[in-house]
Design brief:
It is built from seven helices and ten strands. The two termini are 29 Å apart. Helix 1 packs across helix 3 and helix 4 crosses helix 7. It has a ten-stranded mixed β-sheet with strand order 4-10-1-2-3-5-6-7-9-8, with helices on both faces. With 234 residues, the protein is α+β, with helices and mostly antiparallel strands. The longest helix has 15 residues.
């Protein structure tokens, strides 16, 4: 969706930026890893197919995605504190990229589809193995859910009016205990048993975890995201 096309999210540990064309080559290189494709239930795509996928994510009102990056350091940052702006191609260069986080909106299985109730299915990937087990995945998801919780009306409105976000869910391979613990630590609770696809489902309410207060406490910020020459302070 286009909601976050000019938005970056920053914490002391992570930077989230919209998925842009200049991210595609790095993302495509990540997904050449068979283990990563298996873990994310992804198909192998050509570079041109990955470009088409990036475009579809931007245009589809039921999908929201950010690329996760290491945050700018105090000595190298080009983020303007005066303009509250992250600069594309500078603060999100390939060596800073870590993975992605996204959601898909679906009709709520607990409600009448005609009532406009939707749930957001969340996925996160830390592609770089050296950052596995460091807690960055949890930071990425927490920052993402904080943003979605504050902008839930705008998020569901991208795909048409009259809808209401009623919760989050994740589906995780039964054996992926690390991811299960990550989401349980963010207030998700397991429902039902193991599915035919050997997955478990965890759910959480929209306002679980004290979104707004948590953001202040953790120094989470919503910033602008611009390319050189788009009005940022020189």
């Amino acid at each position: 969706m286009k909601l976050n096309s000019k938005t970056a999210l920053l914490s002391p540990k992570i930077l989230l930026v919209p998925y842009e064309l200049h991210h595609v080559p790095t993302y495509h290189a990540w997904m050449e890893d068979e283990d990563l494709r298996t873990a994310t239930a992804s198909d192998r795509l050509t570079l041109s197919e990955e470009h088409a996928m990036q475009k579809s994510w931007r245009e589809d009102g039921d999908k929201l995605t950010f690329i996760a990056c290491l945050p700018p350091t105090t000595t190298t940052t080009t983020t303007s504190s005066a303009a509250n702006t992250v600069r594309a191609r500078k603060d999100d260069v390939p060596e800073c990229m870590l993975g992605d986080v996204n959601l898909f909106l679906y009709p709520s299985p607990e409600h009448d589809e005609a009532g406009g109730k939707v749930v957001a299915e969340v996925e996160v990937m830390i592609a770089r193995r050296e950052f596995h087990g460091t807690g960055l995945g949890r930071e990425v998801v927490g920052l993402f859910l904080w943003y979605v919780g504050m902008h839930k009306e705008e998020v569901v409105g991208q795909g048409g009016g009259g809808r209401e976000l009623v919760g989050f869910r994740v589906k995780i391979a039964e054996g992926n205990s690390r991811s299960i613990r990550l989401f349980e630590g963010l207030g998700f609770e397991r429902v039902g048993g193991v599915s035919y696809f050997e997955e478990v489902e965890l759910v959480r309410g929209v306002d679980g975890g004290g979104m707004e207060g948590e953001g202040v406490e953790r120094e989470w910020r919503v910033l602008g995201y611009e390319y050189e020459g788009e009005g940022e302070v020189p």
